[in-house]
Design a protein that fits this description.
The complex is a heterodimer of chains A (60) and B (391). Chain A is an alpha+beta fold. In chain A, 17% of the residues lie in helices and 17% in strands. Chain B has 391 residues and is α/β, with parallel strands linked by helices. In chain B, the strands form three sheets. In chain B, strands 1, 2, 8, 9, 10, 11, 17 and 18 form an eight-stranded mixed β-sheet that branches. Chain B has a seven-stranded mixed β-sheet with strand order 6-5-13-14-15-12-16. In chain B, β14 (204-211) and β15 form a beta hairpin. Chain B is globular. The termini of chain B are far apart. The chains are: A alpha+beta (60), B alpha/beta (391).
Chain lengths: 60, 391
Amino acid sequence: MIHKPSRCDFCGTCVGVCPQDAIELAECELVILCDRCTMCRLCIHICPLRALELSDETRI
Amino acid sequence: MKPEYDIIIVGAGPAGSTAARMAALGGASVLLLEKDREIGIPVRCAEGVGQFGLSALIDIKPHWIAKKISGAMLHAPSGAQVPLHTEQIGYVLNRKIFDFELAQMAALAGVDIETRAFVCNLLHDAHGVAGVIVNRMGDKQTIRCKIVIGADGVESRVGRWAGLDTTTPMRDMETCAQVTIGNYNGEANTCHFYFSQRSFPGGYGWVFPKGQGMANIGLGISGKYAHLRAPCELLEDFLRQHYPHAAILTRVAGGVPCALPVSAMVANGLMIVGDAAHQVNPLTGGGIVSSMAAAQMAGRIAAEAIAKRDVSAKALSAYEKEWRRQEGKKMAMYYRLKQFVFDLDDDAFNHIANTVLKLEPKKRTMVNIFKAALLKKPSLMLDVVKLFAQR
């Protein structure tokens, strides 16, 4: 998963839909916990600013 | 900040600050923690609120209000405009000031407050939740307490750490983008609502005037459709079409959990309030009043639990029971209406607008709008009458 901080508003909408509790959000810091993430892509779809993407090697 | 408190509240939005103040007034020692550096910023909100609901909860200070609203205009996909007849007065708030002062009121009631304090986990003991682990600019610190109240918003994790399911289903997450513009020249006392499945799938667009030439312009769409086009792109389309020369003062994004309330709001030593507990009107996405109402109950009942030395889930469930009795049924009705409204197609929206526009202006009420909408689903009319009649 790729997080683009320049697009991100740190709004937490992705955290709210994550079924795995795999996203950690502080004030201006967003961390995807890779050991929990199942690549379900809900966070990518819900992001109001399209700040999340799958990385090339994980894109199917 | 002391090493131990009776109650720690995570998140200093309207729910957190209100719960904190109530708990302190109830005699508990209270710490309120906010992850951002300044309370009230950024404002992730369209800032609209009903006068009736808010004044029942708090003595409204004039400087919290950016603009008093006396009218609402509903826009159909065809461009038809339906002026809603309502006796209700609304406000567009200055959330920056409002949130800041609610926290200050908590401080005056004796609450300790800290910002840039990111709660990264809960502390558990044999009885349940027993404190928080807080990251303050890189330093992790444990603070013990008897009750944690999670008021940590749409991104709530506090509840999850205690085993509550606060995850918002995709279809119920309204994903939103908004700008505040500085050269608004529309009518200053009217809020506008735009409906169209093409432009706002599973949601709506809004223009809320803030006075002095400012307005919040934004939209929210259901997560169910968010993979097709992102709110930020749809907002650009909307601005291009309606406000091509907008001077943009603020850009903000965010999500609103327009879901049914969470299935459990308490655990041993833990309560959740506000967006974290999905205490939002799922039809409108408005959450200030319902969250503050819940927070008043939660703060009061938490302080009582401290005084009685029983912070078990059973004792704290008095809060959940009271909330469900007072607000729960209403929320379920709003949820049913939301499901209906946001499944209508553009032809249906246009048809409703045309039907209502044939009525005399005084009859263009919420009840009559739904009456036109619910011809094929009259079973929901009872909900409509209960929610909107005689108000």
